Amino acid sequence: MHDSIAAIATASGVSSISIIRVSGGAALFVAKKISKLQNITPRYAHLTSLYNSEDDLIDQAIMIYFSAPHSFTGEDIVEFQCHGGMIVAEAILDTVMKYGIRLAQPGEFSKRAFLNGKIDLTEAEAISKLIEAKSVDAAKILAKQMKGELKYFVDESRDALLKSLAYSEVMIDYAEEDIPDDIMQNILMQLDTLTKKIEQIVDASHRRRGLIEGFKVAIIGKPNVGKSSLLNALLSYDRAIVSDIAGTTRDTIEEQVRIGSHIIRLVDTAGIRDSKDTIEKIGIERSLSSVEDADIIIALFDGSRIFDQEDENIISILQKYNDKHCIVAINKSDLELKLDRGKLEKFKPIEVSAKKGFERLTKRIEILLDTIGKGDELMLISARQIEAVELAKNAIFEAKTPLLSGELEFFSYHLQEAVKAISSISKPYDNEEILDKMFGEFCLGK
User: Fold this and answer.
1) Is residue 8 predicted with pLDDT exceeding 90?
2) Does residue 175 contact residue 429 with C-beta atoms inside 8 Å?
3) Among 127, 303, 368, 416, which lies 20 to 30 A Cα-Cα from 181?
4) What is the pLDDT of residues 110-126, one digit of tens each?
5) Quick one: pLDDT band at residue 262, thresholds 50, 70, 90?
6) Cβ atoms of residues 375 and 341 within 8 Å
């Protein structure tokens, strides 16, 4: 980690400003070479000309120097804020690299910040996820984690486990002494309280994961009920082919669209029915798979047609996945209603029309997304974090049996495993392997 690194920290494309970031012991040296300034004040925005290694002018830019340890990485950092576009930014980066600075790996700036004690893993993951946030609610959750909300939970849980472990060690070391009778009960109460809290957090994290990743919304129905028309209306352009021929859509179509303050992954599925057509059957299988993966199901029914077995099959799917959020809509409400609405009454259906628009349905989706997003519960934002707390919960469960039977050495062993698991959320024991994998998923320049 003694070498210095550099990267373009802004996204590719045309923009007003591009930022090139340099971190490491050679950062100030490079800043002086490129700007030809000898006195560079830390935390001061210098408007200066920048030159390449052949003394050709590259750009007039803003240069800011952050001296160690008062920087994001804890090392010397220099940022060049030049005019946008890749040509100027790449010219500055090429010049920096000619002075012995190497190109940073994805996430290497954040990794250095972690290794230098500037952030812990909970804050690092929150930074990464904030860049990819799919809703305003997600941004709020991640901002709290960057302020240490999850770290506080980890520290609190770790302290509770260590307290129980300390009681156990006391009972082992002083087995012949008079130990308070209620000490066993206190340990069990502490462990039960922590287990309940972990279960609540894991449940909330699974339920609200779409806030971070983007909720997946599957549109289902029998053929020719208007699923593709709904997709096109929500996207505001003709993404899917629409025709009166049943079975036009033979594969799933997935697109991102913004609904209110949320970005969702909208999936138009093939019409679900019994079919002998090989290709259509594959499409229907994919439709059912999309329903299984979806957070929200939108079931469309054709109000202009009599309720039939294919509609009954759609209801069966909704009943099978009754743990998911479902919205039922009766389409083609501008035509004569022939569908038996009573069959759908328990789902509180809304009437919509492709000709008149899907505003009512869009509003229902927005309200549902906002409802899911509400809540102040602590949320785990990655599979790694969820796995860690579940390992801790399982270790606590395994520890209870030897505790009740008086096998305190085994109890202590399992409790130590729980401490190790919960602590890994903010600082893993096997640093290099886990850190390389985690930070490698970050953006280049971050």
Assistant:
1) yes
2) no
3) 416
4) 889 988 989 888 888 88
5) confident
6) no
Task: Please list the residues that pair with 258 across neighbouring strands.
Answer: 263
Same domain? 307 vs 163: no
Q: Is residue 339 part of a domain?
A: yes
* Edge-to-edge strands, sheet with 77-83: 46-51, 57-66, 77-83, 17-23, 5-8, 102-103
- Axis crossing angle, helix 136-146 with helix 149-173, rounded to the nearest 10: 50
Handedness of CA 170, 172, 177, 180 (dihedral sign): positive
DSSP run (H or E) holding 265:
strand 262-268
Q: Taking the model in full, what pTM does it have?
A: 0.68
Sheet holding 216-220, edge to edge: 253-259, 262-268, 216-220, 296-302, 325-331, 350-351
Average pLDDT score, the chain: 82
Classify each residue of 176-202 as buried b or exposed e, where b means 16 or more C-beta atoms within 10 Å of its C-beta: eeeeeeeebeebeebbeebbebbeebb
Beta-carbon neighbour count of residue 342 at 10 Å? 8
When pLDDT is cut at 50, 70 and 90, the band that residue 31 belongs to is very high
Interval 36-63: pLDDT, tens: 999 999 999 999 999 999 999 999 999 9
> Can you read off the two tokens belonging to residue 228?
């593709």
Number of domains in the chain: 3
267, 218 Cβ separation under 8 angstroms: yes
Range of the domain at 20: 5-118
CB atoms within 10 A of CB 330: 21
CATH for 199: 1.20.120.430
Last residue of a domain, one of 118, 148, 177: 118
* Residue 249 φ/ψ, nearest 5 degrees: -85, 115
Inter-residue contact 210 to 295 (CB < 8 Å): yes
Task: Using pLDDT thresholds of 50, 70 and 90, give the confidence band for residue 274.
Answer: low
Whole-number pLDDT of residue 127: 83
Residue 42 DSSP one-character state: B
Angle at 184 between CA 183 and CA 188, to 5 degrees: 115
Mean pLDDT within 339-364 = 84
Residue 429 dihedral angles phi and psi, to the nearest 5°: -75, -45
Task: Report pLDDT digits (tens) over 330-341.
Answer: 888 888 888 888
Domain co-membership, 309 together with 334:
yes
Cα 322 from Cα 330, distance rounded (Å): 19
End-to-end alpha-carbon separation of the chain, Å? 16
